């Protein structure tokens, strides 16, 4: 078999971006499996959810959003620390950039390495990379939850930590009145999961239980279309859990019998491929995913830092 091109480095086809109005003043931009972003209107301000990979990519989204509202961005909420979600922040001119305490810690610890790693894995998302002024730093962080009153009869926006999951610091944004949940990368709708910095056990149990308990009727996941209706929302959450449970079962079996990382990768690939293989970033993510879970089973609690070099080593070992 010919070697697969590294991660998403050969994925160069532009995606169609669609702005969806989910409720009065509630917006999402989806992009056929590329990272989703969102925005929520307050009476006289905006809350933006996720920043995109570069200021130039962010400005494309803001140009679409500006057809609906010209309110200034007061809060920019970062669901987690990953480069393709945060490095476009300067385009928003936000008063306050908000994230979880652990997201600040992760940016301090590995922000630069993650930037280099993600740029190598997904170059297409880094539209005009020279427009990035540097790492994105949150102005305000919290550990459990934070509520933003939207004013008028718009209700509240609740930013909530649901436990360790896709990273140590994912937060979701919940609109109780509109029953819309922005779930970040904790839930993917028909896109493969990236779990290279994840906590598989926590994510597949208590964290997803807490996400499901909101009872959302509309959910914006990290990638993929927007599920609407309770059944469809719950199906997306359970499909995310299923991906994690298959990983835990297959990697766990190989680990328990003293097999190798390569055996674990092959077993997991074989099990997931029929259901998830055609979804965006499946081949890209799986080597990094299995490698992180292998570490977890070896008792490495805090995820090791991905660097451009380590990315290539793991790729060559498992997908080369
Ligand atoms: Zn992510």
Instruction: For the record, give the distance between the C-alpha atoms at the N and C termini, rounded to a whole number.
Output: 9 Å
The total strand number stands at 12
Assign a percent range to the helix content.
25-40%
Shape: globular
Uncertain residue segments: none
Mind summarizing the main beta sheet?
Answer: 7 strands, mixed
Which strand order does the major sheet show? 1-2-3-4-5-6-7
Mean pLDDT: 96
Classification by helices and strands:
alpha/beta
Order of helices and strands: EEEEHEHEHEEEEEHEHHHH
Distinctive features:
8 helices, 5-stranded mixed sheet, 12 strands, globular, alpha/beta, 19% strand, binds zinc ion
Describe this structure in words.
With 320 residues, the protein is α/β, with parallel strands linked by helices. Helices cover 38% and strands 19% of the residues. It has eight helices and twelve strands. The protein has helices spanning 55-65, 83-86, 101-121, 200-213, 230-256, 261-276, 282-297, 308-318, and strands spanning 18-23, 26-31, 34-41, 46-49, 73-77, 96-100, 140-142, 145-149, 156-161, 171-175, 180-184, 218-221. It has a seven-stranded mixed beta sheet with strand order 1-2-3-4-5-6-7. It has a five-stranded mixed beta sheet with strand order 8-9-10-11-12, with no helix packed on it. α2 (83-86) links the parallel β5 and β6. It binds zinc ion. Zinc ion binds at residues 80, 82, 166, 185, 194.
